[in-house]
Amino acid sequence: MEIESISKGDEDIGYNSSNVKKAKLQSTLAALLDDPILTDLPKKPTLSDVDTLISVELGSAMRISVLKLDGTFFDVAVMNSATVKDLKLAIKRKVIEMEQSKMGHRHISWKHVWANFAISYHNQKLLDDNSALHGFGICTNSQVNFAPYIMSKGFGKHSRRRKHRFFHGLNNLG
């Protein structure tokens, strides 16, 4: 019985020391995130966020400014070898982060956004998700913006709906 109580006591001590370590780690992380040098890190950074920002400092990633339709802008960081799809994902993450910090949980239909708007650089719409950004001349400190995206009729969209005239012949009966 004594052996069981000792091992139970050891588990409790180990559990408590684990909680203490987690608390210290969280407080250290919070202090780091409050540092003015790290202001461009999100409040809950992922490993890829930190890795990308380190790459920006080392020159293997680029910071791109995104101009919104309301005239405001924000910055995103992507690797130098990034594609249009990578840029869209970075924009999506940044917008979700900004919206959640301001308004809490809010759902944005990104399918709707990308169906109606395209990213544009020097009046050239970036439509092919697999194209590399450097192919368009986008580099560090470039500015892209949202532009209305109008799909052609033959691109899988339905044409304008015809009016259904169910009662068309009833007016002539009487």
Short description:
By secondary structure, the chain is of the alpha+beta class. It is 41% helix and 16% strand.
Characterise this structure:
With 174 residues, the protein is an alpha+beta fold. It has 2 domains: 11-40; 45-148, Roll (Ubiquitin-like (UB roll)). Helix content is 41%, strand content 16%. It contains 4 helices and 5 strands, in the order ααββααβββ. A hairpin with a 5-residue loop joins strand 1 (61-67) and strand 2 (73-79). The radius of gyration is 26 Å and the shape is globular.
What is the CA-atom radius of gyration, in angstroms? 26 Å
Helix content: 40-55%
- Mean pLDDT figure: 77
Order of helices and strands: HHEEHHEEE
- In DSSP terms (H or I, runs of 4 or more residues), the helix count works out at 4
With strands numbered from the N-terminus, the spatial order across the biggest sheet is 2-1-5-3-4
Distance between the termini: 100 Å
- Biggest sheet architecture: 5 strands, mixed
**CATH class category of the largest domain:** Alpha Beta
Query: What's the CATH H-level superfamily name of the largest domain?
Result: Phosphatidylinositol 3-kinase Catalytic Subunit, Chain A, domain 1
The structural domain count equals 2
The low-confidence runs, each spanning 5 or more residues with pLDDT under 50, are 1-12, 156-160
Q: What's the architecture of the largest domain in CATH terms?
A: Roll
Tell me what portion of residues adopts beta-strand conformation. 15-25%
Determine the structural class based on helices, strands and strand pairing.
Answer: alpha+beta
C-alpha geometry: globular
CATH topology of the largest domain: Ubiquitin-like (UB roll)
* Total strands: 5
Domain SNRNP25 ubiquitin-like: 62-149
Pfam family, one: Ubiquitin_4
InterPro entries: SNRNP25, SNRNP25_ubiquitin, Ubiquitin-like_domsf
Organism: Hevea brasiliensis (Para rubber tree)
